[in-house]
C-alpha cells in the first residue's frame, strides 16, 4: 500500500488558506528572534553559510571542516549552530521566503519532502548520479527513499540515519533469570520490566520518553500506536486519536511508565534516558539506535553490558522508526556548486573514514551507508550494535508502518506540515497523563479535537 502525498503549503480553498496562516504565524513568531549567521561577511562564490543543528556529530564536523574540507577545496564555511527547535524556526523562515541567507541547512526526512513540494530545495539527484565517488547507490534504501519527494527527485543527502530498538542490560537480565526474546512484544517487555523493577536498589524496569514534543514523547509513542493497530489519521484523513487501538496503545505506554518507568518521566527525553541507562538506573531503554554509540563509548560505565533487540511489536512485523539528519541546498542560494561540494564531502564515504581516524569509530555519523557496515575498523569498535542498527534501518517501512493504509508517509510522525504542532500539543496532553494530572481518556479526547482540526482542513469540512 502506498501513502498519498500531502499537498504543498498554499493552494486554494479552506486548507490552502489554513496552511498559509500556519506559515505566516511561524514567520511572525520567529521574526523577532532572527539572528544573522555569525561571520558571514564574505559573500564570495567560494564561501558558504551553513545552518546546522547542534548535535554532537555536527559539532564534530564543524571542527574538522577548516582543516580538511577548506584545505582541500578552498571553500570557506561559516556555520550557524543552533538547538533543534531554534534551527527549525530559522530554517523555516529563511527557506520559505527564499531569502538565501543560508546556502545549506541540516534538515530531516520530515522537512525534506515538504520543503521540496514547496520549491525551497535544489534537486540533488542529477549531481549525485554524475558523481561516482559519492556513490548514491551505497546509501541505505529506506534513508535514500525518505529524502526523495513525490516527483522522484532526491532533495537532500543524509549525514546520519537512525531507527529505534530496545537496549537492555544483559547482566541484570541474567541475574533476574530473564532471557530477551529475539523479537520481543510489548506485552513481554512489560512483564520483564515488572520483574526487573526494584530487583536492585533504585533500579527501574524501563526508560521511555515522557517529555512533551513531537520529536520527544510523540516519536516512540507513535511507533507503539502503529504496532497496536492505531493511526493518527485513516486513509481518508479521518482523525483516529480516540480510536480503540490508539487508546489501547496510549494506556499501555502511560501505564508502563507510571508503573515501572524512570523517576521524573514527564520531563525525561532522549538525553535523560541515555543518562539513566549509562548510570545503571534502568534495565531497559527503547529509543533511537543512535544511543548505542554513547552506551558503548570508552568512557561509558555500562559499555559491553548492553544487549540490543528489535523494536517491540504487537500486531506488526516491525516497529522501528526512521529518521535522518541530512543536508539540503536552498534553491535561492547563489553558490550551488560550492554547496554541492560541501554536501558530497559531509555525506560521503571519505568523511566517515576521516571521522573514524580523527575522532574514533564510535563517533562516525553512521546509519546511512551500507559500506560502513562492512568496514572492519568500524565493526571492531561498533560490532555490539552495528548489525542491529543496520537491520532496524533496513526493515523500516515509512509508507506502510501499521495495519491500515495511511494518507501520508512517516513512522514516528505524519509527514504533513501540521504535525509538528499537532504532535507537540497532543504530547503535552499525554505527558500530563503520565504525571497523573489527568486521565489518558481525557488526554485523547483533547488530542482528537486537535487532530480533527487538521482532518477538517484536508477534507474541506
Automatic annotation (TrEMBL):
* Matching InterPro entries: Bact_solute-bd_prot1, SBP
Entry-linked PROSITE patterns: PROKAR_LIPOPROTEIN
The domain of life for this entry's organism is: Bacteria
Q: Name one Pfam family in it.
A: SBP_bac_1
Which protein, by its recorded name, is this?
Sugar ABC transporter substrate-binding protein
Which organism does this sequence originate in? Answer: Streptomyces noursei (Streptomyces albulus)
Amino acid at each position: 500500500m502506498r501513502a498519498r502525498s500531502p499537498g504543498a503549503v498554499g493552494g486554494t480553498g479552506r486548507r490552502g488558506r489554513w496552511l498559509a496562516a500556519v506559515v505566516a504565524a511561524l514567520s511572525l513568531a520567529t521574526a523577532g528572534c532572527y539572528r544573522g549567521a555569525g561571520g558571514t561577511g564574505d559573500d564570495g562564490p567560494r564561501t558558504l553559510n551553513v545552518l546546522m543543528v547542534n548535535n554532537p556529530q555536527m559539532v564534530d564536523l564543524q571542527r574538522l571542516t577548516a582543516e580538511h574540507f577548506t584545505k582541500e577545496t578552498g571553500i570557506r564555511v561559516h556555520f550557524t549552530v543552533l538547538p533543534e527547535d531554534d534551527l527549525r524556526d530559522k530554517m523555516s523562515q529563511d527557506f520559505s521566503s527564499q531569502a538565501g541567507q543560508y546556502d545549506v541547512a541540516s534538515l530531516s526526512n520530515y522537512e525534506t519532502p515538504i520543503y521540496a513540494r514547496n520549491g525551497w530545495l535544489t534537486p540533488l539527484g542529477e549531481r549525485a548520479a554524475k558523481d561516482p565517488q559519492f556513490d548514491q547507490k551505497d546509501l541505505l534504501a529506506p534513508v535514500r527513499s525518505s529524502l526523495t519527494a513525490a516527483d522522484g527527485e532526491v532533495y537532500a543527502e543524509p549525514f546520519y540515519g537512525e531507527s529505534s530498538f530496545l537496549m537492555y542490560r544483559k547482566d541484570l537480565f541474567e541475574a533476574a533469570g530473564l532471557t530477551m526474546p529475539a523479537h520481543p512484544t510489548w506485552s513481554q517487555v512489560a512483564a520483564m520490566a515488572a520483574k526487573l523493577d526494584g530487583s536492585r536498589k533504585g533500579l527501574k524496569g524501563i526508560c521511555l520518553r515522557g517529555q512533551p514534543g513531537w520529536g520527544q514523547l510523540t516519536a516512540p509513542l507513535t511507533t507503539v500506536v502503529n504496532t497496536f493497530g492505531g493511526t493518527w489519521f485513516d486513509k481518508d484523513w479521518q482523525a483516529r486519536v480516540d480510536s480503540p487501538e490508539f487508546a489501547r496503545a496510549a494506556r499501555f505506554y502511560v501505564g508502563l511508565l507510571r508503573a515501572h518507568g524512570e523517576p521524573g518521566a514527564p520531563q525525561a527525553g532522549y538525553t535523560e534516558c541515555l543518562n539513566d541507562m549509562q548510570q545503571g538506573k534502568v534495565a531497559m531503554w527503547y529509543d533511537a539506535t543512535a544511543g548505542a554509540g554513547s552506551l558503548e563509548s570508552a568512557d561509558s560505565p555500562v559499555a559491553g553490558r548492553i544487549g540490543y533487540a528489535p523494536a517491540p511489536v504487537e500486531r506488526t512485523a516491525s516497529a522501528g522508526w526512521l529518521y535522518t539528519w541530512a543536508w539540503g541546498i536552498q534553491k535561492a542560494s547563489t553558490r550551488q556548486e560550492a554547496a554541492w561540494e560541501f554536501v558530497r564531502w559531509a555525506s560521503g564515504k571519505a568523511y566517515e573514514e576521516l571521522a573514524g581516524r580523527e575522532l574514533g569509530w564510535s563517533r562516525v555519523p553512521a546509519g546511512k551507508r551500507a559500506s560502513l557496515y562492512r568496514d572492519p575498523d568500524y565493526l571492531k569498535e561498533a560490532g555490539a550494535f552495528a548489525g542491529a542498527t543496520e537491520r532496524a534501518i533496513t526493515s523500516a517501512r515509512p509508507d506502510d508502518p501499521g495495519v491500515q493504509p495511511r494518507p501520508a508517509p512517516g513512522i514516528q510522525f505524519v509527514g504533513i506540515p501540521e504535525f509538528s504542532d499537532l504532535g507537540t500539543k497532543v504530547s503535552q496532553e499525554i505527558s500530563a497523563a503520565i504525571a497523573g494530572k489527568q486521565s489518558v481518556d481525557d488526554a485523547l479526547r483533547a488530542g482528537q479535537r486537535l487532530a480533527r482540526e487538521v482532518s477538517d482542513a484536508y477534507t474541506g469540512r
